[in-house]
Amino acid sequence: MSTMFLIGEISTLFQIDIRTLRYYESIHLFEPASVDETTGYRYYSIDQFERLNTILYLKELNIPFIEIKHFLDNRNVDHILTLLKEQKRRTEKKITEFKQIQQRINKRIQQIEDVSNVEELFKIRVTQLPERMIVMLKQKIDRSDNLEMSIRMLEKNSNMKSTIFLGQVGLAISVTNLQQKKFDEYDALFLFVELDKHLYSNATIKSLPQQRYLRAIFWQMTHSKSLILIMDLHRIPPNSLLRFKYRSNNS
């Protein structure tokens, strides 16, 4: 049996695209043992099989090619241990990131399903909600203001990446204005963030404790009208609305 193989034969034996083998050659990761100067044919020796197997194995572990090449050029036990431990660390970090993405997707699905429940529209419910984390911007906000600028200011002032925010926006109103049914001005804006407390060192992070809240789901209604609806139709004392949380499928 021949101990030399053409690039097409290597492609078939290892189920690798020929273009991939040519790329490996271009970055000096896996080069032919010899090249025929007349025909340009590339020949690989059977002794190179182990190197290619190692490349494919480490590639499946998502280790960068530059690190694979450095290891192959400097093989020793300590080096492979260091390589694998570092990739383990990177993998665990990615797993954590994907779990966070999964949680965000699940929460968003739940939010959309909640506001899509037409049977719950305009109904006031006492609902047990879990602990939630918010970052708050204490600033007078008129109900006619565009909230986008305030949201950008809050993200900047909190020194946090916008990716940690969950897409839910809240507005706080003073007790006095609430009691007097004055809903033209809010006293603060807040955004919900990931629950993992260890991610934050900023003092602006606050916790909404796990407990019962009043919740209303409304459609195409201003926040002030929804509060009046709650207070008038359900005869709820104004000071009971301090923990009111609104949800709209427009948000």
**Major β-sheet, in short?**
4 strands, antiparallel
Helix content: 40-55%
Distance between the termini: 70 Å
Would you report the number of β strands?
10
Strand percentage, roughly?
15-25%
Give the SSE order as H and E letters: EHHEEHHHEEHEHEEEHE
Q: How many distinct helices?
A: 8
| Average residue-wise pLDDT | 78
Quaternary status: single chain
- Radius of gyration (CA) equals 30 Å
**Stretches where pLDDT falls below 50 for ≥5 residues?**
228-251
Give an overview of the whole structure.
The chain has 251 residues and is α+β, with helices and mostly antiparallel strands. Helix content is 41%, strand content 24%. The chain has eight helices and ten strands. The protein has helices at 7-14, 18-26, 49-60, 65-73, 77-115, 147-157, 175-179, 223-233; strands at 4-6, 34-35, 42-45, 124-129, 132-142, 165-172, 185-193, 205-208, 211-218, 245-248. Strands 6-7-5-8 form a four-stranded antiparallel β-sheet. Strands 1-3-2 form a three-stranded antiparallel β-sheet. Helix 3 (49-60) runs antiparallel to helix 4. The longest helix is centred in the middle third of the chain and has 39 residues, at 77-115.
